[in-house]
Design brief:
single chain; elongated; five-stranded parallel β-sheet
Amino acid sequence: MNGIKEQKVISRVRRKSRGKTVILILLCAFVLQFAAVMGLILSGASSDPETETDYLLILGAGLTGEEPSPSLYERLKTGAGYLKRHPDTVVIVSGGQGKGETITEAEAMRRYLVAAGIEDNRIILEPKASSTMENFRFAKEIIEQRTGAPADEITFITNDFHVYRSRMLAGRNGFRAHALASDTADGALMMYIREYLAMIKSFFFDR
């Protein structure tokens, strides 16, 4: 009897040990893939050499009522500077109206750029997009309707933490894209963590 009890105890100990090993392996796998994805995001968080293109796309980033969020404000500052340096470039401001927003992000961006001295006739509103994938998809439709040709080269502006994923999604929409990275105004750590989750989603679902 004692031998049987000992075997049962040993069996339970072995099962617990195997369970701990599996959990440790899964934890290590998560840490490794988290580090890999964050490495990609960080490695891509910079601008390409500035290139003059026919179209500039500014990606939406939320409003408070009618006012640009800190992230969007940084994008718009970068965009206004680019447009002043390249007066022949047309800008597409892309973003729909979300919860807590009283106008579309596109309209808020238009107002900012006009106040910054950019001519209204250089600004095209794309007021439907609710994701980065849609920013590029709908911008592509606008360009192809205007030109009658496949959309090709474009410059886009977003915050540094968002550049890598935006490049990926621009490529999936057929663009040769040049990134301009604006600063992240505040809460950078949280923004990068949120971007990690968005990267996982985009990698598998944004096609």
